[in-house]
Amino acid sequence: MTAAEIESYAQLIDGKQVQAASGESLSVIDPCNGEPFARIPSGGAEDVDRAVRAAQAALDGVWGKTAPVERSRIMQRWAQLIMEHFEELAALESRDTGKPLTAGRADITATARYFEFYAGAADKLHGQVIPYLDGYSVNVLRVPHGVTGHIIPWNYPAQQYARTVAAAIAVGNAAVVKPSEDACLSTIKISQLGVEAGLPAGALNVVTGLGEEAGAALSAHSGVSFISFTGSPEVGTLVQQAAARNHIGCTLELGGKSPQLVFADADLDMALPVVVKAIIQHAGQTCSAGSRVLVEQSIYDQFVGKIADAFSRLRVGTPEMDLDCGPLMNPTQRDKVIGFTKDAMDNGIPLLAEGALAEGLNPNGYWVKPALFGNVPRDHKLACEEVFGPVLSAIPFDGENDAIELANATDYGLVGAVWTSNGDRQQRVAKRMNCGQVFINNFGAGGGVELPFGGMKKSGHGREKGFLALEHMTTTKTVVHFHG
Ligand code: NAD
Prior knowledge:
The chain contains 15 helices and 25 strands. By secondary structure, it is an alpha/beta fold. Strand 8, helix 5 and strand 9 form a beta-alpha-beta unit. The longest helix is centred in the N-terminal third of the chain and has 21 residues. Nicotinamide-adenine-dinucleotide binds next to helix 7 and helix 8.
């Protein structure tokens, strides 16, 4: 691309589209060819400070007085505008992240759905009336935190943005968003649509830039009352430390090593495509990817053989080719995934099947073939650590107790699935799995908009999605009235 063809994007601060205070900008790279195709402002502490002040001013002004029903109407219009820009946003999301167009479209559908869902919830979050002593009335009000900070990763930029920002705005917070420097173009456009839908200046602000600059400044800012972070456990620790220094709460949505437990009595034909999709979706760059398939010994060879067949038919390509998956996000991610597979092969772990790259791909793209490894030793890092790539580890188990022990044997606890036709076992296993979501005879990476989502252990804490998110995005105020 020539310099003239590279589109420049702006931050959103106080209702205005602005460049970084420093005047600096960053290239946005196309993961299919390694070339820049857009520029974003390289925001930093000064931009974050302006955004937080604008958000506080909005709360002190029009936005703080906006009735829930009016917030709901703005969000309904916002959802409509997203759908009116559907193809443009889906293409942008796919271009930015490299994912197939079908996946980009699914992401924008879910994005609009978050705004619809929380538009419907905005005027339905009630407080409580507490019976107390004679002569008193006590109301527990649910109130917004104030200025909320939102730090977003690059794998599902639009969806991750929507699930946290829509909940925060619905209950009347003023948001400052720091999307990922690797992929944030859809979030910029969707934020502009929020202004078009009627959000007053300052109710929503977006500061783009590097994590260690803009992200760190947002997590440390004393004007922020709550932080929602989605990303890696390492950065999550830094964000939580910064939140602790300001004595504020935070939600951490971190990684995973999610297991699919397949028992001998499962409907294997039903399980097979779901097990494959759960790891291949967005080339495994999904926090809730089903990256471990744990299979009962008696059907291990049969079922893993079917997965191997399916893996050998997988194809990797550009968004326009719309194949099974696209490239990895950046060279660091690609090298990390290649490091895992090389280490597995060096340790003699059998590579059972590989997908293939489509013909004619640009060699500078961050391509990796999907890979299925079998009989992965339980203590090998391929069985325990998050790869964040299209690599599936198959491990046999022997009976229900062993299955559960194996399922719970990582530091993570985000999502899990159990495949069995035995109803008692479905419930027993679901109860004993240490994770935030359990699927029985199905698996939804991330699950539906209505379903509370979040981790246990190193996968984080707090819940997003569904009504539970609204509790996290608010706090309570107990009003005690003595009237005699
Ligand atoms: P990351 O932690 O590197 O970055 C996430 C965000 O944090 C980005 O916006 C980044 O700019 C920002 N950031 C980086 N350094 C920072 C700092 N010092 N202070 C504040 N912010 C900083 O993660 P990533 O590479 O974008 O995403 C991959 C990781 O995210 C994986 O581990 C994945 O499992 C996890 N993830 C989790 C979920 C979930 O819901 N549980 C969803 C998506 C991704």
